Amino acid sequence: MKFSIDTVILAIELVGVLSFAASGAMTGLRKNMDLFGVCILGLTTAVGGGVLRDVILGSTPPATFQNPIYAAAAIVTSLVLFLPRVRRLLNRSQRLYDLGMLAMDTLGLGIFTVMGVQIAYTRVAEPTVFLLVFVGVVTGVGGGVLRDMMAGNTPYIFVKHVYASASLAGALVCVLFWLPGLEVYAMGAGAVTVIVIRVLSAYYHWNLPHAHD
Fold this sequence. Notes:
- By secondary structure, this protein is an all-alpha fold.
- The chain is built from ten helices and no strands.
- Helix 1 (2-30) packs parallel to helix 4 (69-82).
- The longest helix has 30 residues, at 94-123.
- It is globular, with a radius of gyration of 17 Å.
- The termini are far apart.
- 44% of the residues are buried.
């Protein structure tokens, strides 16, 4: 049973890596970066939150450097998006680009938020709710913050539709539903919470109050 749970968690984490790598690579393409820049941005977005998480938890070297599958998946994803035909498709329509960014960023945010909570549970003997939620949010938004800073943009979490707040809500749901043997269901509930909030906030243009409001 343990093997099957580990397999499911690995699969979920890889989906998150692919999603965030795609959002990073798409940002690099929009900034007209070269192949190296697109790959680095995709890689940083995919593994950046996990690296910050491991540093906070005192787990060194971070998991990214112990298992190359995450970095390899991120780089391959970035290379695929750099293909001329894919680039032309993404550049053909601003709406297509925006929808792609929303989908990839939202999926990655939901998955990495609950993965952060799961990792904190496994590596800390007696974690507090604050630690679990904090690590979940950092894991979820960390890669995106690094992506935006490297691309010269204001970090997404400060200006776009409800983002970090969605991660916070998802992390709280995951922690509240966490029971021995039902971890995958708690993670699913948390990830769905993040995704639903992000989609609704984008559709209805929900935002937290801005300085000029």
